[in-house]
Amino acid sequence: MAERIRLGMVGGGKDAFIGGVHRIAARLDGEFDLVAGALSSTPERARDSGAALGLDPARCYADFEQMAQAESTRPDGIRAVAIVTPNHMHAAPAMAFLKRGIHVICDKPLTATMDQAQALAAAVAEAQALFILTHNYTAYPMIRQARDMVARGDLGQIRVVQVEYAQDWLTEAADSGNKQAEWRTDPERSGAGGAIGDIGTHAHNLACFVTGQKVESLAADLQSFVPGRRVDDNANILLRFDGGARGMLWCSQVAPGCENGLRLRIFGDKGGLEWGQEDPNYLWFTPFGDAKRLLTRRGAGATDAANAVSRTPGGHPEGYLEGFANIYTAAAAAIRAADAGQTPDLSLLPGIEAGLDGMRFIRACIRSAQSNASWVAP
User: Fold this and answer.
1) pLDDT tens across 220-263, in order?
2) How far apart are CA 136 and CA 143, in angstroms?
3) What is the C-alpha radius of gyration for the chain, rounded to an integer number of angstroms?
4) Which positions ≥6 away from 353 have C-beta within 8 Å?
5) Under a CB-based contact definition with an 8 Å cutoff, are residues 171 and 178 in contact?
6) Cis peptide leading into 109, omega within 30 of 0?
7) Among residues 124, 128, 129, 96, which one has the least CA distance to residue 110?
8) Residue 115: exposed, middle, or buried by beta-carbon count in 10 A (0-12, 13-18, 19+)?
């Protein structure tokens, strides 16, 4: 097996949910070793977080600039960095590592503002390193199967796309000790989009990934139902796609009874598909005029596209962590190719363009809502 890729991490220290997810994903297939980190915004917490993870104290940095500088000059320095900070702290660290030739794996959405996104895109264009965005749901096996079936024409001409992402964890005002809710409802850190940025971008990305179409215009009705909340917590959005399909996107973080309800339905003139994230190993396919068929991960109807990102035999559930791991494993292959002077395969890896599409989606939703849900181009 090839030597593991030395990985650093910015953010993801104590009490940070997504940092742990990224660390598990990076380890799952044995492709990365976490060896360095700037894990918190305060030096003491950064040191304590690094110690808890067993990192060398000399490689537990007080800030990302110090880390980027030091690691880029070490003979055993990191080759990639995972950025798992709140949205407003994505761009600056990413640019600091990219300019030193260190590959970046960044959590979504791309940034907090369009200005930051454009600055980061310019840095990616100039860098001799890869930029990968962790839209993990694109790497679920049955989502890869759905994309494959759409591309080969099993559904015919796509007509209707319905996607929703419903949660209930922000139904009430957040307690002061809830760090995850605190920064996600603070426009200075999350960006102007609340639910549309946090989960709406996932729904938007998934619809585009599976159909192969981009949103050319949208009409958005945004709400902030919780009194005093400064960002949206619910959105109903009509979509027009460049391939002729029409769609609807609902995202909400104030829907009691919904935990992580990401669902996708796609209908063409020959058939339809249905998939839900909370039961991700199943994909329903209904050819027009025929009975509904259940397709299962690693089952008799699974395609090569699904099997390529499956690890266990059929009937053994795979989901959220494995989806993240599929992104990391594909990122490792791309990094190894790039470092060997070869052309990496980025065809299924979300990158800067997917990130920019997400930022344009957020901007268009806000502009539309401000003009009474008028149609707006991203």
Assistant:
1) 999 999 999 999 999 999 999 999 999 999 999 999 999 999 99
2) 11
3) 20
4) none
5) no
6) yes
7) 124
8) exposed
Give, for 263, the enclosing helix (H) or strand (E): strand 261-268
Would you say 12 and 89 are in contact if contact means Cβ atoms under 8 Å apart? no
Helices (H), the chain: 17-28, 43-52, 64-73, 91-98, 114-126, 141-151, 179-184, 187-190, 195, 201-211, 304-307, 320-339, 352-370
SS3 81: strand
HSE of 239 in the Cβ direction (CA atoms, 13 Å)?
A: 28
Query: At which residue do the structure tokens 């068929």 appear?
Result: 293
5-129: what CATH class? alpha beta
Predicted TM-score (pTM) of this structure: 0.97
The domain 146-312+358-370 is classified under which CATH number: 2.40.10.330, 1.10.287.3510, 3.30.70.870, 3.30.360.10?
3.30.360.10
Task: Tell me the pLDDT band of 1, cut-offs 50, 70 and 90.
Answer: low
CA dihedral 195, 197, 202, 206 (to 10 degrees): 110
Which residues lie closer than 8 Å to 4 by C-beta, 6 or more apart?
A: 30, 31, 32, 33
